[in-house]
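Standup notes
- DV: blocked on the single-chain target, sequence here:
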Amino acid sequence: MNMNEVQLLSFTLGDDIYGIDITRVQEIRALGQIRNLPNTPSHCVGVIDFRNVMVPILDLREVFKYDIKPVDAQTVMVVVSVGDIGSEMLIGIIVDTVSDVIAVDESDIKTSPRIGGKVDTNFMRGMFKYQDNIVVMLSLENIFEAEEFDELKHLVEHEKALA
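- DV (later): unblocked, structure below
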């Protein structure tokens, strides 16, 4: 691997390709059995027990306003670590498909375009071209508000105490 290379796990939402830093990925798996949580945002579909840790599952398709397929046993989930060292949290993100690992040179990554004041592009770390497609690199920390992570942590800790 080149020192200026970034390795990303690529996945799709609809026809679009996204990438996340591979070092954040803990596991890729079928969603399986989930426990619903009351009073959560609509994009939070519940929690799973992941290696004895309660992990909230967020539907990235809903967060980004894609058509949503029903969550079933075939639904793909990527468990990722989000946050700064010492305050990290595991979350599961639901995606349509997981593709492969892409290595991209940092010099090929372009900054995200500013589309206007009403369109939030803060969740994008950048974009690059890969095999005739544009891949959007995501900044997981910027997708969800800090208060939302605090709320999810509280709900998961409460759920764990009940178990």
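- Follow-up: The two ends are 44 Å apart (CA to CA).
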